[in-house]
Amino acid sequence: TELSVFGMNRKEMEELSLPHKYLIGADGLGSGKNRSLAESECQKILPSLEKIITDKILSCFIVCLGGGTGEGCIRGFLQKSVDIQIKVKLLVVTLPHSSEGLEKREKALLLLDEIEKLADGIFVVDYDGLPCSTISDLYNEADRKVMGFVGSFINMIVKHSLICFDFNDVRSFLRYYSDTKFIDYFTLSGNINYLDAELSDLQKYLPTKYHTLDDISNLIVAIHYNRETNDDIVRKFLDRIVSDGIMKKQTKDTQIKWTMIHDPDMEKNIFRIDIFTKCN
Ligand SMILES: Nc1nc2c(ncn2[C@@H]2O[C@H](COP(=O)(O)OP(=O)(O)OP(=O)(O)O)[C@@H](O)[C@H]2O)c(=O)[nH]1
Ligand SMILES: [Mg+2]
Prior knowledge:
The chain is of the alpha/beta class. It folds into two domains: 4-158, Tubulin/FtsZ, GTPase domain (Rossmann fold); 167-279, CATH 3.30.1330.20. It has helices at residues 10-14, 35-53, 68-83, 102-115, 135-158, 167-175, 192-199, 231-249; strands spanning 4-7, 20-23, 58-64, 88-95, 121-126, 184-190, 216-225, 255-262, 271-279. β7, α8 (231-249) and β8 form a beta-alpha-beta unit. α2 (35-53) runs parallel beside α3 (68-83) and α7 runs parallel beside α8 (231-249). The two termini are 31 Å apart. 30% of the residues are buried. The model has no long low-confidence stretch (mean pLDDT 90).
């Protein structure tokens, strides 16, 4: 995997200790909150983007909507990846908080609507839905959510999985049996007893604002654990949580895929369950 960052503000970019940084625009002074300036400057960086993504099977674009640079560039970036036929184009966006201005939010939602068709899967972090009392708490929580989702989704593809689960499973999760491109995600970790109790009420974790358990078309369950975990415990986990727990709760039309991933940094006998869903 490779992480690249694009921006128009030289000072902000200098603060990032990352190897692959691309400055958009000649002066490095930012967009001046001007989306159309960013849009035209963005055209000049597209050859660099093409070089980065051209041999990749998946491209994930992360953008905070609400300002000039991100909003001005995201359409051009996605269009380029459509043009060069990237197999999976994932889009992660944050939506500005109402307190930043209702007009800003409206503009961001409108843009999201317009670029939806260019992506294969979309994960949204809506700042209005985060229970935080200060802006810096909000940004930290949003950062955590973005990193959690992206880390978990990409790991599913790049890490060796113990069950026959591969890139095409992810692709079919994104493409089929669903009318929407929007992905929901939640994660839980703990020992068997904790997970057993929590998962008895799956509904509690699914954002009911968007859907209920009945209209879920598609579900991926990624289980992370340390393979040093006692075999009996793994067996008990699979019987109780996977066979009886999660699987039994799906409706008959739900497509479910699951995978198990070894994580040497995890404590023994602890499991982490990441659940990705899409709805009808
Ligand atoms: N998670 C997170 N979100 C941020 C942070 N800073 C800003 N945001 C959000 O990102 C949105 C866009 O940031 P801006 O700086 O306005 O936009 P930009 O894309 O950098 O473009 P410019 O207008 O050129 O600065 C804001 O409206 C905030 O909602 C941060 O540090 N963390
Ligand atoms: Mg900015």
